Structure formats: structure tokens, C-alpha cells
Amino acid sequence: MVSDFIPGKTIDPLSDFHIQRLAGILEYFRSITADRAGSLCGGPSIGLLWPDTNDLTISSVQQVEEWFNSRLFPGDGKVHFDPSQLVLCHLDIAPRNIIWLDDGGVCLLDWASAGFYPRPLEFASLFFQEYDFSEMLFNAVSFRSERDKEEQQKIC
């Protein structure tokens, strides 16, 4: 795989300023929507939330629900995303995937897991990242509803 060189730096740990910038980016992602769920490339959903088999191709909110509900313990209840807006989710936000440019810009790397999914999945994916980073980002980004927060907790 070949990619362009991006002049900048990775920062870890991130300051409050950097966390606020990321929170703004995640808020912006909410404004990018789609009518069909699934990966950006249209193929299988891959990454931390999905199976390693690369054979799960998602095209609807119902399929997202079925996938997670088939893996929850019986006492955990069920996730319900419908009706949910499908928003752009990166699904691998981590300090290692962020380049901070000298001019103040931000470049997010590693879009292999990205797609259009219910928003709680973005926050569920943070569960697999370094604790301090994810906790700071959770606190900086507001959930629009208590329901979103509950669905994210079930997935984690």
C-alpha cells in the first residue's frame, strides 16, 4: 500500500485543545448522512466492531441490529437503532490515526473501517482505544439522546 506523505505529527497524549478539535470533527461527521448503511467502499464491514472473516456486508440498520443482537448476552437486552440516522463514522479514531498539521489542520488516517452507521457505533469503537483518550473524547462529545448512550453501552 502506498500513500502520500503528510507533513505533521502525531500527539499522544492529547491536550484538551486537541480533544475539543476531535469532538468538533465528530460533530461535523453527524452532518454527513446516507440512506444506506455499510462501509464506505460498499464491501464488507471491517474493523474493531466486526468479524475478522471480512464477509459481513451491511446494507441496512436492521442488519446492524441483527449483528449486535446475535452477540449480546440474553440479560443485556437488545439494541434498537431503528429509526436512526446513518452518519459518517470513522470507527478507528485513535491518536495513532491522527496527524496534526503545522497550519492547524487535522488529517484522519486509516479509513478502512469507515462507513455509514448509527452514531452510537462511533462511540462504541472508542471502547477499544486507550482509556484516557477515549474517556476524554466521550466527555467532550455530547450524546443527543439518552437512548444513543444506552445503545452504545450495550454494544460495549
Automatic annotation (TrEMBL):
InterPro entries the UniProt entry points to = AGP_Transferase, Aminoglycoside_PTrfase, Kinase-like_dom_sf
Domain Aminoglycoside phosphotransferase stretches: 62-127
Record-linked SUPFAM superfamilies: Protein kinase-like (PK-like) (SSF56112)
Q: Which domain of life is it from?
A: Eukaryota
The record's annotation in Pfam families points to:
APH (PF01636)
- What Gene3D superfamilies does the record tag this protein with? 3.90.1200.10
Q: What is this protein called?
A: Aminoglycoside phosphotransferase domain-containing protein
Origin organism of this chain?
Penicillium egyptiacum
Lineage of origin: Eukaryota, Fungi, Dikarya, Ascomycota, Pezizomycotina
